[in-house]
Protein backbone atom coordinates (compact mmCIF):
# COMPACT_ATOMS: atom_id res chain seq x y z
CA UNK A 1 0.00 0.00 0.00
CA UNK A 2 1.55 3.40 -1.00
CA UNK A 3 2.42 5.79 1.82
CA UNK A 4 0.27 8.89 2.26
CA UNK A 5 1.98 12.14 1.18
CA UNK A 6 3.54 14.09 4.05
CA UNK A 7 2.16 17.59 4.71
CA UNK A 8 4.01 20.09 6.94
CA UNK A 9 2.95 23.52 8.17
CA UNK A 10 5.64 26.01 9.28
CA UNK A 11 5.44 29.33 11.13
CA UNK A 12 7.74 32.33 10.81
CA UNK A 13 7.03 35.98 11.83
CA UNK A 14 3.23 36.24 11.77
CA UNK A 15 0.04 36.40 13.85
CA UNK A 16 -0.86 32.70 13.22
CA UNK A 17 -4.07 33.75 11.44
CA UNK A 18 -3.35 31.70 8.31
CA UNK A 19 -2.51 28.60 10.38
CA UNK A 20 -5.86 29.09 12.13
CA UNK A 21 -7.47 29.14 8.70
CA UNK A 22 -5.99 25.67 8.13
CA UNK A 23 -7.49 24.47 11.44
CA UNK A 24 -10.82 26.09 10.53
CA UNK A 25 -11.12 23.97 7.39
CA UNK A 26 -13.37 21.72 9.55
CA UNK A 27 -14.84 18.93 7.36
CA UNK A 28 -12.32 19.68 4.62
CA UNK A 29 -9.50 19.25 7.16
CA UNK A 30 -10.88 15.83 8.16
CA UNK A 31 -11.04 14.83 4.51
CA UNK A 32 -7.51 16.13 4.01
CA UNK A 33 -6.25 14.21 7.06
CA UNK A 34 -7.65 11.05 5.46
CA UNK A 35 -5.52 11.48 2.35
CA UNK A 36 -2.25 12.88 3.72
CA UNK A 37 -0.06 12.44 6.77
CA UNK A 38 0.02 15.73 8.66
CA UNK A 39 3.64 15.29 9.63
CA UNK A 40 4.54 18.68 11.15
CA UNK A 41 1.99 21.24 12.35
CA UNK A 42 2.90 22.60 15.79
CA UNK A 43 -0.17 24.85 15.93
CA UNK A 44 -2.25 21.64 15.98
CA UNK A 45 0.01 19.07 17.65
CA UNK A 46 3.41 18.84 19.36
CA UNK A 47 3.95 15.47 17.66
CA UNK A 48 6.14 15.89 14.60
CA UNK A 49 7.49 13.48 12.00
CA UNK A 50 10.89 14.06 10.43
CA UNK A 51 11.10 15.02 6.76
CA UNK A 52 11.39 15.00 3.86
CA UNK A 53 7.91 16.40 3.19
CA UNK A 54 5.87 16.27 0.00
CA UNK A 55 4.13 19.62 0.58
CA UNK A 56 5.10 22.38 3.02
CA UNK A 57 2.81 25.30 3.82
CA UNK A 58 4.79 28.29 5.15
CA UNK A 59 3.22 31.16 7.09
CA UNK A 60 5.10 34.32 8.09
CA UNK A 61 7.97 36.51 6.92
CA UNK A 62 11.71 36.44 7.51
CA UNK A 63 12.75 38.99 10.14
CA UNK A 64 15.71 37.43 12.01
CA UNK A 65 19.05 35.88 11.02
CA UNK A 66 17.90 32.61 12.63
CA UNK A 67 14.77 32.46 10.49
CA UNK A 68 16.80 33.26 7.38
CA UNK A 69 18.75 30.05 7.99
CA UNK A 70 15.70 28.01 9.13
CA UNK A 71 13.74 28.65 5.91
CA UNK A 72 16.64 27.18 3.93
CA UNK A 73 16.34 23.96 5.95
CA UNK A 74 12.56 23.89 5.35
CA UNK A 75 13.18 24.33 1.62
CA UNK A 76 15.70 21.47 1.55
CA UNK A 77 13.22 19.16 3.30
CA UNK A 78 10.24 20.04 1.05
CA UNK A 79 9.41 18.74 -2.43
CA UNK A 80 6.81 21.50 -2.89
CA UNK A 81 6.83 24.73 -0.87
CA UNK A 82 3.69 26.89 -0.79
CA UNK A 83 3.63 30.24 1.03
CA UNK A 84 0.34 31.26 2.64
CA UNK A 85 -0.76 34.76 3.62
CA UNK A 86 0.41 38.36 3.31
CA UNK A 87 3.36 37.91 5.69
CA UNK A 88 4.83 35.01 3.71
CA UNK A 89 4.11 36.48 0.26
CA UNK A 90 5.01 40.16 0.83
CA UNK A 91 6.56 40.59 4.27
CA UNK A 92 3.27 41.37 6.04
CA UNK A 93 2.36 44.39 8.12
CA UNK A 94 5.73 44.02 9.87
CA UNK A 95 7.29 45.13 6.56
CA UNK A 96 6.34 48.70 7.55
CA UNK A 97 9.77 48.62 9.21
CA UNK A 98 11.26 48.53 5.70
CA UNK A 99 10.33 52.21 5.26
CA UNK A 100 12.01 53.37 8.46
CA UNK A 101 15.12 52.87 10.61
CA UNK A 102 14.61 49.60 12.51
CA UNK A 103 17.50 50.39 14.86
CA UNK A 104 15.68 53.55 15.95
CA UNK A 105 12.58 51.43 16.73
CA UNK A 106 14.56 49.00 18.89
CA UNK A 107 16.20 51.86 20.78
CA UNK A 108 12.79 53.40 21.53
CA UNK A 109 10.91 50.18 22.41
CA UNK A 110 13.46 48.06 24.27
CA UNK A 111 15.40 48.95 27.42
CA UNK A 112 18.36 46.89 26.19
CA UNK A 113 18.22 46.93 22.37
CA UNK A 114 21.63 45.23 22.18
CA UNK A 115 19.83 41.95 22.96
CA UNK A 116 17.52 42.26 19.93
CA UNK A 117 18.74 40.16 17.03
CA UNK A 118 16.73 41.31 14.06
CA UNK A 119 17.13 42.03 10.35
CA UNK A 120 16.78 45.50 8.90
CA UNK A 121 13.91 44.37 6.64
CA UNK A 122 10.96 41.95 6.84
CA UNK A 123 11.02 39.94 3.62
CA UNK A 124 8.77 37.48 1.81
CA UNK A 125 9.75 33.82 1.75
CA UNK A 126 10.34 34.05 -2.02
CA UNK A 127 13.06 36.64 -1.38
CA UNK A 128 14.99 33.95 0.49
CA UNK A 129 14.28 30.57 -1.17
CA UNK A 130 12.52 29.15 -4.21
CA UNK A 131 8.72 29.07 -3.76
CA UNK A 132 6.43 26.85 -5.85
CA UNK A 133 3.21 28.82 -5.25
CA UNK A 134 2.14 31.95 -3.36
CA UNK A 135 -1.36 32.02 -1.85
CA UNK A 136 -2.22 35.57 -0.85
CA UNK A 137 -4.58 37.05 1.73
CA UNK A 138 -4.70 38.39 5.27
CA UNK A 139 -5.84 35.87 6.19
CA UNK A 140 -6.00 33.42 3.30
CA UNK A 141 -9.31 32.13 1.94
CA UNK A 142 -10.29 28.57 2.97
CA UNK A 143 -11.64 27.66 -0.45
CA UNK A 144 -8.46 28.78 -2.23
CA UNK A 145 -6.33 26.89 0.32
CA UNK A 146 -8.19 23.61 -0.28
CA UNK A 147 -7.87 24.12 -4.04
CA UNK A 148 -4.10 24.69 -3.82
CA UNK A 149 -3.42 21.71 -1.55
CA UNK A 150 -5.56 19.27 -3.53
CA UNK A 151 -4.11 20.52 -6.82
CA UNK A 152 -0.52 19.87 -5.76
CA UNK A 153 -1.38 16.49 -4.28
CA UNK A 154 -3.06 15.61 -7.60
CA UNK A 155 -0.09 16.89 -9.60
CA UNK A 156 -1.94 19.70 -11.38
CA UNK A 157 -1.73 23.50 -11.41
CA UNK A 158 -3.99 25.27 -8.85
CA UNK A 159 -6.87 27.34 -10.17
CA UNK A 160 -6.69 30.66 -8.32
CA UNK A 161 -8.06 33.46 -10.46
CA UNK A 162 -5.88 36.60 -10.68
CA UNK A 163 -8.64 39.14 -11.31
CA UNK A 164 -9.43 42.12 -9.07
CA UNK A 165 -11.88 42.58 -6.21
CA UNK A 166 -13.98 44.71 -8.58
CA UNK A 167 -14.97 41.51 -10.43
CA UNK A 168 -16.16 39.99 -7.15
CA UNK A 169 -18.27 43.09 -6.46
CA UNK A 170 -19.92 42.81 -9.86
CA UNK A 171 -20.59 39.09 -9.44
CA UNK A 172 -22.35 39.58 -6.10
CA UNK A 173 -24.19 42.71 -7.26
CA UNK A 174 -22.46 45.04 -4.80
CA UNK A 175 -22.73 48.72 -5.69
CA UNK A 176 -19.29 50.29 -6.29
CA UNK A 177 -18.43 52.26 -3.14
CA UNK A 178 -15.99 54.50 -4.98
CA UNK A 179 -18.40 55.45 -7.78
CA UNK A 180 -21.59 55.70 -5.69
CA UNK A 181 -20.20 57.02 -2.38
CA UNK A 182 -16.78 58.45 -3.20
CA UNK A 183 -15.11 56.02 -0.79
CA UNK A 184 -11.38 55.40 -1.38
CA UNK A 185 -11.05 51.74 -2.37
CA UNK A 186 -8.14 49.48 -3.41
CA UNK A 187 -10.49 47.02 -5.11
CA UNK A 188 -9.42 47.94 -8.67
CA UNK A 189 -5.80 46.89 -7.98
CA UNK A 190 -6.27 44.12 -5.39
CA UNK A 191 -6.39 40.41 -6.14
CA UNK A 192 -9.72 38.70 -5.54
CA UNK A 193 -10.22 36.06 -2.86
CA UNK A 194 -12.15 37.66 0.00
CA UNK A 195 -15.51 37.77 -1.82
CA UNK A 196 -15.42 41.58 -1.77
CA UNK A 197 -16.12 41.53 1.96
CA UNK A 198 -15.47 45.19 2.80
CA UNK A 199 -17.39 46.69 -0.17
CA UNK A 200 -20.35 44.48 0.78
CA UNK A 201 -20.46 46.51 4.03
CA UNK A 202 -20.15 49.80 2.12
CA UNK A 203 -16.46 50.18 2.97
CA UNK A 204 -13.54 50.54 0.60
CA UNK A 205 -11.20 47.57 0.02
CA UNK A 206 -8.07 47.63 2.22
CA UNK A 207 -6.00 45.47 -0.16
CA UNK A 208 -5.65 42.45 2.15
CA UNK A 209 -4.98 40.08 -0.79
CA UNK A 210 -2.21 42.21 -2.27
CA UNK A 211 -1.80 43.47 -5.82
CA UNK A 212 -3.62 41.72 -8.65
CA UNK A 213 -1.85 40.73 -11.84
CA UNK A 214 -0.64 43.90 -13.67
CA UNK A 215 -2.40 46.46 -11.41
CA UNK A 216 -2.71 50.06 -12.65
CA UNK A 217 -1.87 51.66 -9.31
CA UNK A 218 -0.94 55.03 -10.87
CA UNK A 219 -4.43 55.35 -12.36
CA UNK A 220 -6.01 54.53 -9.00
CA UNK A 221 -3.85 57.17 -7.29
CA UNK A 222 -5.12 59.71 -9.82
CA UNK A 223 -8.72 58.83 -8.98
CA UNK A 224 -8.03 59.04 -5.22
CA UNK A 225 -6.58 62.53 -5.69
CA UNK A 226 -9.80 63.52 -7.51
CA UNK A 227 -11.68 62.28 -4.42
CA UNK A 228 -9.64 64.63 -2.25
CA UNK A 229 -7.19 62.13 -0.74
CA UNK A 230 -3.76 63.67 -0.15
CA UNK A 231 -0.64 62.01 -1.56
CA UNK A 232 0.59 61.43 1.99
CA UNK A 233 -2.57 59.48 2.78
CA UNK A 234 -2.44 57.60 -0.53
CA UNK A 235 1.03 56.41 0.48
CA UNK A 236 -0.51 55.17 3.74
CA UNK A 237 -3.35 53.42 1.90
CA UNK A 238 -0.82 51.30 0.00
CA UNK A 239 1.25 50.62 3.15
CA UNK A 240 -0.84 48.17 5.12
CA UNK A 241 -0.90 44.36 5.04
CA UNK A 242 1.05 44.09 1.77
CA UNK A 243 3.22 47.19 2.08
CA UNK A 244 6.30 45.53 0.57
CA UNK A 245 4.54 43.89 -2.39
CA UNK A 246 6.36 45.45 -5.35
CA UNK A 247 3.39 47.21 -6.98
CA UNK A 248 2.09 48.65 -3.70
CA UNK A 249 5.56 49.60 -2.46
CA UNK A 250 6.44 51.46 -5.67
CA UNK A 251 3.14 53.36 -5.70
CA UNK A 252 3.40 54.31 -2.03
CA UNK A 253 6.99 55.50 -2.56
CA UNK A 254 5.94 57.55 -5.61
CA UNK A 255 3.18 59.31 -3.65
CA UNK A 256 5.37 59.74 -0.58
CA UNK A 257 8.02 61.46 -2.70
CA UNK A 258 5.44 63.91 -4.08
CA UNK A 259 3.66 64.58 -0.75
Task: Tell me what you see in this structure.
- This protein is α/β, with parallel strands linked by helices.
- Helix content is 39%, strand content 11%.
- It has helices at 17-23, 27-33, 65-76, 86-90, 102-109, 142-154, 165-172, 177-181, 197-200, 217-226, 231-238, 246-258, and strands at 6-11, 37-41, 53-59, 78-84, 133-135.
- Strands 2-1-3-4-5 form a five-stranded parallel sheet, sandwiched between helices.
- β3, α3 and β4 (78-84) form a beta-alpha-beta unit.
- α11 (231-238) packs antiparallel against α12.
- The radius of gyration is 20 Å and the shape is globular.
- The model has no long low-confidence stretch (mean pLDDT 94).
In short:
The protein is an alpha/beta fold and 259 residues long. Helix content is 39%, strand content 11%.
Keywords:
alpha/beta; globular; 259 residues; 5 strands; five-stranded parallel beta sheet
Shape: globular
Estimated share of beta-strand residues: 5-15%
Mean pLDDT: 94
Neighbour order of strands in the largest sheet = 2-1-3-4-5
Alpha carbon gap, first and last residue: 65 Å
Order of helices and strands: EHHEEHEHHEHHHHHHH
Instruction: Determine the number of helices (DSSP H or I, runs of at least 4 residues).
Output: 12
In this structure, how is the largest beta sheet organized?
Answer: 5 strands, parallel
Tell me the helix content: 25-40%
Mind telling me the C-alpha Rg? 20 Å
Assembly state of the chains shown: single chain
The count of β-strands is: 5
- Poorly predicted tracts of residues: none
Return the structural class.
Answer: alpha/beta
Amino acid sequence: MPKAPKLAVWKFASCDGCQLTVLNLEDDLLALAGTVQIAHFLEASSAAVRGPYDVSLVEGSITTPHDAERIKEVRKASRMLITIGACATSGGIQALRNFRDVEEFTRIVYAKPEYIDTLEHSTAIADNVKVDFELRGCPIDKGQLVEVITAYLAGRKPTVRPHSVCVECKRRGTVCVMVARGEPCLGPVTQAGCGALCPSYARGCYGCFGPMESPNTASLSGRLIQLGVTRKNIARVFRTFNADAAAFREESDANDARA
